Amino acid sequence: MKHAPTHPLRCGIVGASGYAGAELLAILAAHPCAEIVGLFGSSRKAEEGAPTAADLFPRFESLPVGALKVEPFSVDAAKALELDAIFLATPHELSHEVARALVDAGILVLDLSAAFRLSDRAVFEKNYGFAHEHADLLAEAVYGLAEFNAEAIAEARLVAVPGCYPTASILAILPLVEAGLVDTTRPAIVDATSGVSGAGRKAETKSLFCEVSMQAYGVFKHRHRPEIAEHAGIATIFTPHLGCYDRGILATVHLDLVPGTTEAAVRAAYEAAYGDRPFVRMLKPGRWPSVAAVERTNFCDIGFMLETTAHGTHLIVESAIDNLVKGAAGQAVQCMNIRFGLPEATGFLPATTPALAIAGGAS
pLDDT digits over 145-157, tens only? Predict the structure, then answer.
């Protein structure tokens, strides 16, 4: 078991001007064992200047982190900071380009892009439009679903932080697949709705206040479909939807269960997977997750109901997360905690504050 660090973890964020980057900044600023020593824009050029975090996000005004400048990014600039961990809230292409050099420099890389989430290079190229040139690093990368991969994360040099839709979907599906309760000859059907922040901060007509509407997109071809299928262990039909709200994901999953599966068996499988996990909350029978209940938290709420008929046993399970926290920044910090021997809820839940913070060692 790893020992907790005796010094503040020196952290850098690339892509600090985006929504996930801003969420990382907020979480790490309150983290008792982290020190933010570098902020970078994923595409900002030197001639554009270096705005402060507060210039980009006024909610940081008057806070110490608000004065930090978002500098142009380069690998050399990151290496010069002697980082313990770097968070890449960047386009897939940039993560693919720079991860090798950062890993070789001895920096823990927590990649929030999809550059290292899929094990099959052909599937990656089909879904992301460019060839993956780092087969060795792809094989080494650890999928950062903390509830299932904590042991591997604890030894990782590169963590591929799961996507937001896959996080909500896999947490709902995987315990039942692993328990052998799902008829895996039938696909999982996932219908999920995300807030507009899931599309990023770039300006697009469909994301404008007067244009945004509840609608499906990426039907049968969304990039997260193969990620869900690979890491949930079951073929998946995935339909994402854009919701008329700023943040959060609600996923509704349909599964066909093996004959004879009972509600008690389903609940037992979930309890076995999540009974000692701090961020997955199994709701009482008859209660269903909501986006409001998880907004701005690192929780995933799960509720389910099954029905047995002459046609078989069908399960409907719903999960809710905040796409920017458990679906991105929060999950990345959760993985960082595991990697450096901290309780995984450090920085989120006060009861887990380690001694380093009491000693005043972290800023």
Answer: 999 999 999 999 9
Pairing of strands 249-257, 312-321: antiparallel
Q: Which of 43-57, 61-75, 125-139, 321-335 has the lowest mean pLDDT?
A: 43-57
CATH code at 81?
A: 3.40.50.720
What is the per-residue pLDDT for 358? 38
Helices 164-178 and 224-232 cross at an angle (nearest 10°) of 20
HSE (side-chain half, CA atoms, 13 Å) at 9: 28
The residues pairing with 143 across neighbouring beta strands, listed in sequence order, are 160
Overall domain count for the chain = 2
Q: Are residues 145 and 193 in the same domain?
A: no
Q: Are residues 89 and 230 in the same domain?
A: no
* Annotation says 335 is catalytic: no
Burial 177-214 (b: 16+ CB within 10 A, else e): bebebbbeeebbebbbbbbbbbeeeeeeeebeeeebee
Residue 199 has pLDDT above 80, yes or no: no
Identify the active-site residue in 11, 33, 164, 300.
164
Helix pair 330-339, 146-153: axis angle to 10 deg = 40
Same domain, 144 and 168: no
So what's the pLDDT on residue 200?
A: 67
Pairing of strands 9-14, 34-41: parallel
For residues 139 and 142, what is the distance between their CA atoms, to the nearest angstrom? 8
**For residue 352, what are the contacts with CB-CB under 8 A and spacing of at least 6?**
278, 343, 345, 346
Sign of CA dihedral 83, 87, 92, 94: negative
Give the other-Cβ count within 10 Å of 360's Cβ.
8
pTM: 0.91
On the question of pLDDT at 351 being above 60, the answer is no
- Does pLDDT of 28 surpass 90? yes
Tokens representing 59 are 């909610």
Nearest to 143 by CA among 233, 60, 67: 233
- Nearest of 344, 337, 336 to residue 111 by alpha carbon: 336
Confidence at residue 115, expressed as pLDDT on a 0 to 100 scale: 96
Residue 198 is part of which domain span? 164-321
